[in-house]
Each structure stands twice: as C-alpha cells, then as structure tokens.
Write a structure and sequence with these properties.
The protein is an alpha+beta fold. It has 4 domains: 113 residues, DnaJ domain (Helix Hairpins), CATH 1.10.287; 97 residues, Sandwich (HSP40/DNAj peptide-binding domain); 40 residues, no CATH class; 111 residues, Sandwich (HSP40/DNAj peptide-binding domain). It is 25% helix and 26% strand. The strands form 6 sheets. The protein has a 4-stranded mixed β-sheet with strand order 10-11-15-14. Helix 2 packs antiparallel against helix 3. It is elongated, with a radius of gyration of 34 Å. It binds zinc ion (2 copies). One zinc ion (ZN) binds next to loops. The site of one zinc ion has 8 residues, from loops.
C-alpha cells in the first residue's frame, strides 16, 4: 500500500505554516483520540498516521527533506517498522498543542514508554533550584547592572569529591544494571508498550554506595556559602525572574546542578514613579515662573537637564524629556521622562509681596473665572 502524503493526511496546503499544521493536527487528534473511540482500530490508525505526519511536517528540517525527496527522504527517521510512538517527539508539547489537561490523558495512555527515548534518565539526581530576592533601585534598573550576591548552595563534598562514598567504591546497581531505570512491558491500545520508571533500589542513580562518606553521610554534597555575580539587564520589572542556569544546588553524588532564580524587586524611588519604561516626576514652579516662563533644572536618572517652561504654563502641564527614561528590556528603545509641573502657591509672603499681589488682584478681579467641566482647557484660552 502506498504511503499517503503527509499534507493530505493533515488536510493542509503545502505552504501551510507551523500554526496551521498544529491546528490541523489538533483537530484530527481530538477526533481520533482513542478515548473518544474505544476499541476502534481505524481511529487508532488515523490518530497514529496524523501524529506521524505532524512529527515530520512540524519539524523544519524533516519537512524540508520530505518536501524534497518524499517519504524516501525521511525513511531513516523511524525504525525498521516505520513510525512508532517512540518516534513521536511532541509529548512534551501536548500542553502547548492541546491546552492544559489534555497531556495527562496522553501520559496515562502511553505511559513512560511513549517518547521514552527522550528522557535520558538521571533526572532525579539533579540539584534543587534556589531562589533569591534582589532589590534594585530605579537607577540600576534604568541602565542594567551587575550585582554580587551571597547564597547558600550545596556543593560537592570535599572529603569524598562528591561521590558520597568513604572509600571511593561505587558499585553499579544490580537491579537496573546501572541504568537507573526499570522497564515493564504492558498492554495498551497501541499494543505492547514499554513503561520505563525509576529504579527503586538506587532511586534512579544507577549506583550503590557501600560505605558512606562520614562528612556528607553519603549525600556527596555539603552546604556552602558562595558569592555569585548576577548581570541584570536594563528594564527588568517587579516580580520578574532571572534564571541562572546550572548555578543552583549540586545534585547528590555528582548529579547535575539546579538553577538559581533571582526574583527582582524594585525599590521605591524618592523622586520618580515608573510607568513601563517611562519615568514621571512632579516639579514645583512658582506663580511668576508660570506666568512669565523660565528655564528650570529637572533631575533625571543620570543628573539634571535644563527644561524650558514657556510663559503662561498651567499647573499640571506635562512635558516630555525624550530618552531620559529606562532602557527597555530586550529592545533598543528607551523610555522618556515625563515632567508634571505643579504651580505652588506661596503661603508666607512679606510686605512687599503683599503689596504686589494686592495690585495683581485688581487685574485678576477683571477676569471672570468660571468653574465647571474642562475648567483647565478654558482657563488656558482665557489667559492666552
Ligand atoms: Zn538501580
Ligand atoms: Zn562526602
């Protein structure tokens, strides 16, 4: 029987993009899923066929080979009997393909044997991830910074060199013959499935220690405080994480390292308020500055810049200082500084000022100020 064309199986065009391929596969998988078609051989075959097509077409390289040479081009991707579930590499993407909740169905269906070749075992030997909180000032966030932090981690025991063994003797586990995994064969809808699980004797490590190290009690690691340097990119935000891969706890007995998660906290700034990559500041101006205009010196994250307040400026008016904000994360663009000028009424004035204000009041009394909606915009017209 000639093999069907993968595009035809999924019902997509040759030019279909990844999104269309995923969508088509999702639809077919939902339709032919064995849970919905119990004991239906045909549905089972259709589901498998669609999965094979998806396996090839969703992968750029495999798809290219298939486009160029047809089925002959991807023959060696599968075993002698053609595609089997072990060749299906998307188990980890099921949440992505089907949404939450669906992957568990697949897990139950295929057990560990499904895509089992992906897991190289020994995952139980991985060290724990650690979390640390880091408070940063707005200035540090604006430009990015480098910080040295002290953190307690588990490092290789210096007495046993991380082996956990007092005499250096480590034996291969007899039950799993050093693989750390035990296999069981069971029946499933797809015929015989192999289930791979962690070896109970060695807890997946494949090794057994006869005499435990007296310093680490066979753990192969000990608590230490170390200093690490963390590069903080500009533009990070409150509650964001920076993951330092492979810097967390060392795994027991020479296992791989976990990660360190650095949780970012933003310290409140005395002057500025943050709004995305923009920063905002309120700047007080006097009545005479507002009426006559003036040049003011506005604080920025890096110093001060001169800003022109034009004559007749109203209280609350916003000015934008381009590029004086925060350098965005993963972007070349920089935020701005927004300056809100606030008219400050003097509360203590001397005799001379009182005379001057009294004189001014005579002029002001001839101006009729009307309250109501849009007061400020009308005010602007009135005074101009
Ligand atoms: Zn074992
Ligand atoms: Zn030790």
């Amino acid at each position: 029987m000639a093999k069907r064309d993968y595009y035809e199986i999924l019902g997509v065009e040759k030019s279909a993009d990844e999104g269309a391929i995923k969508k088509a596969y999702r639809k077919l998988a939902m339709q032919y899923h064995p849970d919905k078609n119990p004991d239906n051989k045909e549905a089972e075959e259709k589901f498998k066929e669609a999965s094979e097509a998806y396996e090839i077409l969703f992968d750029k390289e495999k798809r290219q080979l298939y486009d160029q040479y047809g089925h002959a081009g991807i023959e060696n991707q599968f075993g002698a009997g053609g595609f089997s579930w072990e060749n299906f590499s998307h188990r980890g993407d099921f949440n992505d393909i089907f949404g939450d909740g669906f992957s568990s169905i697949f897990e139950g269906l295929f057990g560990g044997g499904f895509g089992g070749s992906r897991s190289s075992g020994r995952s139980s030997n991985r060290g724990e991830d650690l979390q640390i909180e880091l408070s940063l000032s707005l200035k540090e966030i604006a430009t990015g910074t480098e910080k040295t932090i002290k953190i307690g981690t588990k490092e290789a025991c210096d007495k046993c060199n991380g082996t956990g063994s007092a005499d250096g003797q480590v034996e291969s586990c007899a039950q799993c013959r050093g693989t750390g995994q035990v296999r069981q064969v069971r029946q499933s809808l797809f015929g015989q499935m192999q289930t791979v699980s962690e070896c109970p004797s060695c807890r997946g490590e494949g090794k057994i220690i006869k005499t435990k190290c007296s310093k680490c009690y066979g753990e192969g690691r000990m608590g230490k405080v170390k200093e690490i340097s963390v590069k903080i990119p500009s533009g990070v935000e409150e509650n964001q994480y920076i993951r330092l891969r492979g810097q967390g706890n060392m795994g027991p007995r020479g296992g791989t390292r976990g990660d360190i998660l650095v949780l970012i906290h933003e310290k409140q700034d005395d002057l500025f308020e943050r709004n995305g990559n923009d920063i905002m500041i309120e700047y007080p101006i006097s009545l005479s500055q507002a009426v006559l205009g003036d040049d003011i010196l506005v604080p920025t994250l890096t110093g001060k810049v001169k800003m022109k307040v034009p004559a007749g400026t109203q209280s609350g008016r916003l000015f934008r200082l381009k590029g004086q904000g925060i350098q965005g994360l993963n972007t070349y663009s920089k935020g701005d500084e927004i300056v809100k000028v606030i008219l400050v009424t003097p509360t203590k004035i001397n005799k001379e000022e009182t005379e001057l204000y009294t004189k001014l009041r005579e002029f002001d009394s001839k101006r009729e100020l009307k309250p109501g909606r849009g007061f400020f915009s009308k005010l602007r017209d009135y005074f101009s």
